[in-house]
Amino acid sequence: MITDGWLWVEYSWGITIAVLVVYAIVLETRLAAVRKEQG
Amino acid sequence: MKLSWEMVVGLLGVVLFAVGSYQGLVVAPPDRFMGDVMRIMYVHVPAAWITLLLFTFVLVCAIGWLWKGKWYWDALLEASVEVGLVMGCLLVVLGMLWGRPTWGVFWTWDPRLTSVAVMLLLFAGVAALRAFVDDPRQRATWSAVASIVAYVDIPIVYFSVRWWNSLHQVQSSPKTVDALMVVPLRLCAFAFLAFGIWFVARRYRIARVRLDKEMAPCPE
User: Fold this and answer.
1) Is residue A3 packed enough to be buried (19+ CB in 10 Å), middle (13-18) or exposed (0-12)?
2) Contacts of A8 in chain B (CB under 8 A)
3) Rounded distance, CA B132 to CA B118, Å?
4) Best residue in B11, B36, B106 to probe A by mutation, most A CBs within 10 Å?
5) Residues paired with B35 in a beta bridge
6) How far apart are the first and last CA of chain A?
7) Which residues from A are below 8 Å from B when comparing CB atoms?
8) Of B43, B100, B209, which is closest to A35 when you measure between CB atoms?
């Protein structure tokens, strides 16, 4: 049995949430920028 | 504030992911052999499914462009390749975090891992190709052909665990998994599906704005 399992689970959830949130922010920022440029 | 349909799908994804995480981290039991580390499955497997689904959609877009020549297929291809790469990178990182405590290494040149690495390189190549070609029609045709070539690796990724002797386990089915584990897996899978639709829809809008700008007649 792996004893430090929760540590790896915490890393996984942390990275998943970080990637999803950062990518969503990047997309919304890029979309706002191109729309502004378009007028 | 008026919410677009994409934002509603995104919010649905957030709710599904929150409930799925609660089910996966609190309600579901640990695995008999792997213990709690198995809970990584609730994010790793949905990331794998959405990556394969997005790259399959890239194939549909590529065929759609070559067959019909409508620009929305090209914009959808661009969006799906980028979102697929983001989800694919997340999939690999999550797999590495699962591999370290179970296999003892973050990475090994196992058939499944190698074919996934090749898949990401091939679709990164499609994205790079799009960045280097200025002519929109040429870019659309070349990247559609490159996407079809890249897609050849997807069945290899899926069947690699059956065709070759692999460290990676073969696909599970609800019949072989405890019902308490199936629920969070499904909730997280639908959450990732919602995130995928949300991201592709937003990225599609960015691609359309660029296309419209490129296709607009030059001012006199």
Assistant:
1) exposed
2) 37, 40, 97-98, 100-101
3) 21
4) B36
5) B31
6) 59
7) 1-6, 8-9, 11-13, 15-16, 19-20, 23-24, 27-28, 30-31, 34-35, 37-38
8) B209
Phi, psi values for residue B31, rounded to 5°: -75, 150
Check residues B134 and B148 and name the one with the higher pLDDT.
B148
What is the band of B197 on the pLDDT scale with cuts at 50, 70, 90?
very high
Tell me which residue has tokens 């079809």.
B148
Q: What is the pLDDT of residues B3-17, one digit of tens each?
A: 889 999 999 999 999
What pairs with residue B31 in β-bridges? B35
Of residues B1, B7, B39, the one with CA closest to residue B194: B7
Residue B175, SS3 per DSSP: coil
B165 phi and psi angles, rounded to 5 deg: -75, 110
Region label for B96, one of left (φ > 0), alpha (ψ between -120 and 50) or beta (otherwise): alpha
CB B192 within 8 A of CB B46: yes
Stretch among B9-13, B185-189, B204-208, B214-218 having the lowest mean pLDDT? B214-218
